[in-house]
Automatic annotation (TrEMBL):
Residues 1-20 are annotated as: Disordered. This is Transposase. Residues 1-14 have a biased composition (Acidic residues).
């Protein structure tokens, strides 16, 4: 069995690193989406309309 006290600092560091990597990934994803929207405006508009329709028909 593992001792939770021994893993605690390492786990916190790993958690912080995971959040940093996730934030970086989301920034890059947003940047890639914006680039695609600029390069293919017609496809981007269609994707926006599809997303809006999906959100309108979504039920909580």
């Amino acid at each position: 069995m593992r001792n939770p006290e021994e893993e605690s600092p390492e786990q916190v560091e790993t958690d912080a690193e995971r959040r940093r990597r996730r934030a970086q990934f989301l920034r890059e994803l947003t940047e890639a989406r914006e680039l695609r929207d600029r390069v293919q405006p017609r496809r981007a508009k269609a994707a926006r309309l599809r997303h809006a329709m999906r959100m309108r028909t979504f039920r909580w």
